[in-house]
What does this fold into?
Amino acid sequence: MAVSLFDTASPLLALRPQLDAAIAAVLDSGRFILGPQVSEFEREFAAFCGARHAIGVANGTEALTIALRAMGVGPGDDVVVPSFTFYASAEAIPPTGARPVFCDVDPQTGCVTADTVRAALTTATKAVVAVHLFGNVAPVAEIEALGVAVLEDAAQAAGSRGGAGRPGALGRAATFSFFPSKNLGCFGDGGAITTDDDAIAEHARTLRFHGSPDRITYEHVGYNSRLDELQAAILRVLLPHVDDWADARRAAAARYEQAGLGELVSLPVATAGSQPAWHLYVVRHERSDALAAGLAAAGVEARAYYRTPAHRQPAMAAFAPGAALPATERLAREHLAIPMSPALSAGQVAEVVAAARTVLA
Ligand SMILES: *Cc1c(COP(=O)(O)O)cnc(C)c1O
It folds into this structure.
């Protein structure tokens, strides 16, 4: 492909010597699990988010399950979650014993709103998973004003800024994924939970280590879910660059606008007061499959991520939503991710827009 959907390699090129040194230092140390790299990364990542605590875990999916349990979610509870998101946002709920209740999203921003959440509340609702979709920042304070605890799914939102602060510091707790293609990605699987709440942090720390606070007494049926030292050392090299990469993603988005892409397709809309670090740049068009095929023929990679929304996945059949989710269904049909990365050049943006213009002419 002349222009690929992601470019995860280019931003790392200049950091290669530091990455090699960080990896070598871990090998030399002989500490691989829950050592100094993880504690230092947890301190630095909490500070980056503006949260009191960060807890490294094995991936973004287990981060959600562990955070929900640490917030007290369990059997008999309902957890509201959008259906237009990566499947894992919903998949992480049943392992807590709670039931996912699917809600709709705003058709422009792709994020949950106080109105879409309100429509899904039940007498058993214990928490809401507010997904910062594609890096856009969900209106967490407005949802908490409904009187329900919010867990931010910030897997796609490292480097984004909301009017009230960064993802990771907006809800009762938040979760991140460090999957390699995310805005802050390691070289394998990794994740984190952030929170200001001491009790939630302590509970999450215990759950990630077999439910044991002291490695002697096992208080809960927990998990073996840890960020490892190698990944933490790598993340410590990358973290100082996340804001610059986010700026570069926003600059690429601005170039798409200046190049007239908005005349051809509906552009992503940032939520009020937010500066999204577009993890994916997702446009909307009635003929999105034809657009994707035409772009591919022109050497431009494009992909629809969530054609079948979470509530219509076979594994979620038992948790079908009571109400219709019209914005979800429409977004599922019309969305298309086009190339986005901190390294996306002005020339590549021009190529993508020219190809889209030809396809849609
Ligand atoms: C990637 C992602 C996850 C899951 O993270 P993993 O590290 O792959 O387990 C959860 N929610 C959203 C919105 C994601 O994009």
